[in-house]
Amino acid sequence: MTPASRPRPERESLPVQTRRLLRHAGLRARKGLGQHFLIDESVLRLIIKTAELASTDVVVEIGPGLGVLTRELAERSGRVIAVELDDRLAAVLKESLAAFDNVTIINGDILKIDPAVLLRETGGPEYKVVANLPYYITSPVLRHFLEASTRPRTMVVMVQKEVAEVIAAKPGRMSLLSVGVQLYGEPEIVGHVAAECFYPVPEVDSAILKISVSAEPGVAVRDEAGFFSVVRAGFSASRKQLVNSLVRGLGLPRAEVLRMLEESGIEPRRRAETLSLEEWSQLWKVYSGTYY
Questions:
Q1: What sign does the CA torsion over 83, 128, 121, 117 have?
Q2: What's the whole-number mean pLDDT along residues 6-16?
Q3: Does residue 253 carry a pLDDT above 80?
């Protein structure tokens, strides 16, 4: 069945559809799983537009909830693999999306599933991630996919507004999370989403974040785990001078850390949030050349 010929039932408004599906299944949103269902059509359209889907695309969706986004993905792509942790919602999805022969619903924890395993049935490693992420697993999910052996080409995800701003930050406002994402791709905030666009209404606003994932890390790092051990050390003492953070985080004598920073061309009094990806890479090279 081609995308153009797949079923397109008459549309209800998203608020009406959401309440009907919850009522029909006898369900309520589970706060413990961060369940907030998107009920704004314009936001849904922006997510789909940003994903730039083709009929040959394989899409992985995390936390499909009631399947509002899943339907749109299924109508525009070749295959959708939706992973839902809530067993009750997974059962609802399998029933409500049964007419789509290109949708696979998996009831499981995405953080325990290797992306390569998800893609076995598609016959290739190319895929995109499109999802309205539960806030509480945003960082782990991003790391899970970006650090995987099989990375997506693109990630279009709804996240908490403040988290999106942290991820897309430039030197001067960098963090461990922004370095971790920007090593693998280029993040861009596509749009902001008010809390009222969800049911039930969360306490914070959201943002749509697009990450264009690179084929190779943005800087040459032969040992990613080792690289991040240095970055974590740099951020181990917030708002402290870099030399002090690295002494504490790496457990090295101050004189040795000063030598490393001088050799890297980095002023010791700077703070970790001011370093660029290239500067972290240079510091890692000096450190690894000494201790690895």
A1: negative
A2: 63
A3: yes
Do the Cβ atoms of 14 and 38 come closer than 8 Å?
A: yes
H-helix or E-strand spanning residue 166: helix 161-167
**Which of 48, 30, 29 lies closest to 40 in space, CA to CA?**
48
Superfamily of domain covering 224-291? rRNA adenine dimethylase, C-terminal domain (1.10.8.100)
Superfamily holding 3-213:
Vaccinia Virus protein VP39 (3.40.50.150)
Q: For residues 253-265, give the mean pLDDT.
A: 97
Instruction: Give the model's pLDDT for residue 30.
Output: 61
CA angle 1, 85, 141 (to 5 degrees): 90
The residue extents of the domains of the chain are 3-213, 224-291
Element (H, E) at 38: strand 37-38
Sheet strands (E) in 77-203: 79-84, 103-107, 128-132, 154-160, 185-193, 198-199
The per-residue pLDDT of the chain, averaged, comes to 90
Please count the residues of the chain.
Answer: 292
